[in-house]
Design a protein that fits this description.
The protein is an alpha/beta fold. It has two domains: about 70 residues, no CATH class; about 210 residues, Rossmann fold, CATH 3.40.50. The protein has a nine-stranded mixed beta sheet. Strand 1, helix 4 and strand 2 form a beta-alpha-beta unit.
Length: about 290
């Protein structure tokens, strides 16, 4: 009776661990047949050792899977048409271990929007300023956004494509290089001022792009009288008189996540820890890694 009780208890214990092991393996017809055969045929002492070994191995496999780092976010970084401090700016991307960066300068960037190159990146980052592009290049750019590529637009890229109405719909705003008429209302040309020390307020502290960032000060260029579409979601604002109030926002375009950040003229901005955090989190959010 004692042997029967002991054996039965052992069967119960082994069965319990057998179930735990099965949870860590794919439940296919063959895996189930294998474990059933092992459980029925192997002597109890050997089975006890085998169960422990398999359970240990399964746990190690799971630990190893958890330890695999997430794939890097692949960024297509586009520049050209406006001068900037190249070494300092590119360092923002090159020192970010979460990123794998492809750097392209106009006129060589448009080829990256072709469908056969689309698999090489997850996010498009614009730090360019251009007015002309072929209709095919524009169509390819929109096609990539419709596929879900994220878009991060920085600083002077707000000035691009003054004569392409779809661009303001994509990025959510526009710097007016000249006096213009918007919805029947005459708008003055936008203006800028270098070397300003100004205060920034975080409009949405819960958004993944601004999470963990508090109101801060920065030395940077300001833009004034630029357009911000009403359906853009404000992230940063300022009361600085030489600036438009909303200076960073998010929006969606055809399923793509879009971020615009007005900050980032030169190294005085690049070196600001708040700007660095904004850029990291903007790329992460646009890539849907938040």
């Amino acid at each position: 009776m004692k042997d029967l009780f002991t054996t039965g208890f052992f069967h119960f214990s082994v069965s319990k661990y057998f179930c735990l092991i099965c949870l860590n393996f794919p439940a296919t017809k063959y895996s189930c047949q294998f474990f059933a055969a092992v459980f029925m045929l192997v002597p109890m002492k050997a089975l006890s050792f085998l169960v422990a070994l398999l359970l240990f191995s399964a746990n190690e496999v799971l630990k190893a899977a958890d330890a695999v780092p997430a794939a890097k976010i692949r960024v297509l970084l586009i520049t050209g048409g406006h001068g900037f401090e190249k070494q300092q700016f590119f360092q923002l991307f090159r020192t970010n271990t979460e990123l794998s960066v492809i750097e392209k300068e106009h006129p060589n960037a448009d080829a990256m929007f072709k469908s056969d190159r689309a698999g090489e990146y997850d996010v498009i980052a614009l730090y360019d300023m251009r007015q002309d592009s072929s209709e095919q290049a524009k169509a390819d750019f929109i096609a990539r956004l419709k596929e879900g590529k994220g878009l991060v637009v920085l600083h002077h890229a707000l000035c691009s494509f003054q004569k392409w109405p779809e661009y303001i719909k994509i990025i959510g705003g526009q710097y007016h290089l000249d006096k213009t008429v918007v919805s029947g209302v005459e708008k003055p040309a936008s203006s800028y001022k270098h070397g300003m020390h100004w205060k920034i307020q975080v409009a949405d502290t819960n958004h993944p792009v601004t999470r963990g960032i508090k109101d801060f000060e920065i030395d940077d260029e300001t833009y004034k009288d630029f357009e911000v579409l009403s359906d853009s979601h404000p992230l940063l604002t300022t009361d600085e008189p030489t600036s438009t109030k909303t200076i960073a926002w998010t929006r969606s375009y055809e399923g793509a996540r879009v971020v615009y950040i007005q900050l980032g003229h030169d190294h005085t901005a690049y070196d600001n820890p708040n700007y660095q955090q904004l850029l990291r989190q903007a790329i992460r959010w646009a890539a849907k890694r938040d």
